[in-house]
# Entry
Amino acid sequence: MLKGYMVPLSPLGKASLNPPPPWHYSGDVVGIEYWADADAAKAVLPRGLDPDPSSHGHAMVLFIDWQFTGENEEHLDPARYQYRECLFLVDALHKGRRVMWCPYIYVDNDAAIARGWVQGFPKKLAAVHQTRTFAAPSAAAAPLAPGSRFGASLSVHGERVAQARITLRQPVSDPKSLLTRPTVNRRFFPSLAAGAHDKPAVDELVLSVTDNLTLADAWSGDAELLFPDVRGEEIHALGLVKVGAGFRFSLAYSVTDLQLLEDLTRTST
# Structure
């Protein structure tokens, strides 16, 4: 009997890309809020979500340096389970509820891609980098202090897709104020059978469930953001209208579940 939570299933189950949940995450975030063109932000929303008229295209980009583990000390295998990520979030409404929608997300690790697809995050392979902070004093330490500067970048197939810079100004008194909306994803798995290419095997709108969400060491400040036009990507098409605050914080949560909002295979287009 073949074993494993994910492919490839194998006799011992050790070849699986990921262990079964619960999944635990800890990471450092460099993020920027910005405003996209309202029509462009509306265009990336799936069926079941509506634009939030009060947000006027408000969005965020988050660069995250992650460490992952399951229940068997997977964090002791950093070559497999450390990774870096860049995700884009757009304000939206689901039946009047204020949510965030993730139209684009990039990672540098195959296990992270697989976990993301199971959760509904449309992850793609990329190179993601960000400035790290260190405790020992140095010109390279980037301490959490007024005036410290952090950079982050996203590159896909050798081309720079996003570039960010932030300058810390002050601590954030309520770190959870930085992430006030839950994230909605779309679990989408197409069918390859002839005649059914337009009928996905799975098409679900789901709410991301994060257990024990914790934010720490949060700082905010000034920000700079660029989305170069790159062939094969559409981030620049969101239309960067205005850049808001930058922020840097540490983040942790666990994943054991998600909430099905709508089965889109059962609703008309």
